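Take a careful look at the protein record below. Let me know whether the structure tokens fit the sequence:
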Amino acid sequence: MSSREDHLRWWRQMVRASVTGQAATGPVIGAVPEPAVGILRRFTDAKAVNGTIESADGAFAFIAAKVAEQSGTTSLEWLHQRFFIRVLRLWHDDGSRAETLLQASRRPDFPAEMAALDEWLEHRSDGTDAAKRPELAVLLDSANALSQDEWRSLVGGSPRLSQIPVEHIQADVSVLGKHPSTLPDYLDDVVLYQNLAKDLLEAAQAADPEFDLCVRARLDVALDLVERRRFAKLRMLELGWPELMERVLMPGGVRRLRQFEAYVLGDADAEAPAEAWTRFLDDEHLKEFLRTRPHFRAINDGFLAYAAGTADRPARPQPEPEPELELEEGNRYRDAELTLKDGPDEYQETWKGTAVLRTAQGDLQWAVTIKVKELTDAANDFSRIYMGVSSSGSRTGPVMRDYSVVNPENPTVMTEKLGLALWDQTFGAKAEAADVLLDLLAKHQRVRLTVASNNNAVVDLQWECLRIPKLRVTVGLTLKLSVVRKVADPVSLSSHTIGAPLRVLQVLAEPDGLPPLPGARQELQLLRESFAEAEHQQTAILQTIPKATERALRERLRRFRPHVLHYIGHAMVDRHTGTAALILSDTNGRRFDLTAEKLAVQLQDSGVVLAVLNGCMTGVNPGTDEFAFGLCQSIVRQGVPAVVATVRDVDDTAALRFAQEFYQAFIDGHPLEECVAEARKGVFMQGWDWSAWVTFASEMADLQSIRLRLPVRG
């Protein structure tokens, strides 16, 4: 089997040959099977245009765009699934046209015909002269009866039909044992389509051992081109603005570069640049350079460290060192606690009680009525809504870290409606309370809103979606206001400080019999790359348990004594038995449920200061009464100061993106709450379910100190 290096060498030889007009020759020819050669030839025209990689080969253009957009979170398995689900949907929606497309795909000029169809549709309007239609348009619509919207429905989506490798279009759907036309609509059973896509892939791989090449060869080259463009941008920064590059290479410099870039790009939450950087704002060429993709915020720390060559570059005079990212007065979160006390009436679908807003200036109390069931149902719809929507608004089919069903709604509109309803039923019900919160935000740069109640159903509401109408701000997507769910009655059995170096333990659980998570292994690698520079500077140590058992976790906690525990895998909540658990493996590779109670015992005196539980529903309570404790509540009560977890099913790729964004911010020295906000924004930018990640804590004073302390060079 040919390797990535083989694909890259042969592809470059073919590109050179296409430019010089000579035949591509070289020793690599014998290392690359003929199928790979044929695939690689399809996109020798690839080039960067206006910050994106373009090619007449639609599949390569799609893969390259995903690699650039998702910054390392695009996997071979994920791409196969996207392509096969799109094929299945075509067969389900219009079997006769799917058959026509299948027959046409066997012609050698099929890619060119698809490109011509795309070009025609881009400029077409209803009533276009039939004689001007490309041949494929005639085959698919001989009567010229399809409207523009019907054409878009037929060939559009993500990916478009022109972006699907011909090998996927030619898949034999008869191996499924049922015709796709008999399937339910895609949005009614996404998981079924995921499973059928997996069946199609397995059948294709069994029939052709080289089937993966149609995606793998493209992915290998796309990854290389994206990396080269990122490397080139860093080199251009060094050559064009060497003084600025000196500051980037200092501890905390990458964070400041991203902050500067965000400010130039006009991000709403971007902080003003540090004083030493403000003079660069007068350089229009630099600002235009920063606006051109790829952006530095899409480049992880490990790659920046490698590309900049910080480990090998000779010593050079250092500019005056910038102060460590300390929590300046304006950056500290001011506490405001919203305590919701049960009223005398028994809670049914609507909760009635008393809200108490506690601030340094005193308490404010008022009666509130919250439609808990209505708000809970709306939040539960998010995984169904987001599952079917990509960042471009087209329907997709992501791999879940659990199971869910789809409801075709607009996620942005639904989020805002939920956030405004939360506001109207709490702060909006008391003008004075709204004024107090707004006044706090006006006086201080940041405010922490702690939500506390003995009623778990109230605490579990989607407070991260709280929308402040006057400011047009959603709480979970801004650094200005943090929401933390308070866990009462904690015990303290170990230190709550993060020492130097920071010790991080990442744990991956993949027991037999559970759905595979294509992004899980990538998450391990991304974290390794993200921590590369911090490990080089000896400010952090990262260890990994690649296939976790309860015993392996217990032993590593005892020997390594990590400050941060990062979990990757499945989780479960059983409301009938009141059980919540992380799903590990036993010694035979089978499923082992590490319940909330057992996890709390393991962590109670481990020294873990922060747990990031990046699976499905890791932050969900198994019951509604005050004595029901989920994973987060249990371990915080037993002494872990803070936990970041999820309150519903999450998309596998979104979980991967959240981890990447979270730790990049963490390694830049940001406190925990800022890291969560930055990670949510990264997920939001992809059009994914950003509000699923929440924070639990007991003592709010501990949150400010949960951060990586960066060294200062003199």
Remarks:
- The chain has four domains: 4-219, 241-308, 330-486, 502-703.
- The longest strand covers residues 333-342.
- Residues 241-308 form one domain.
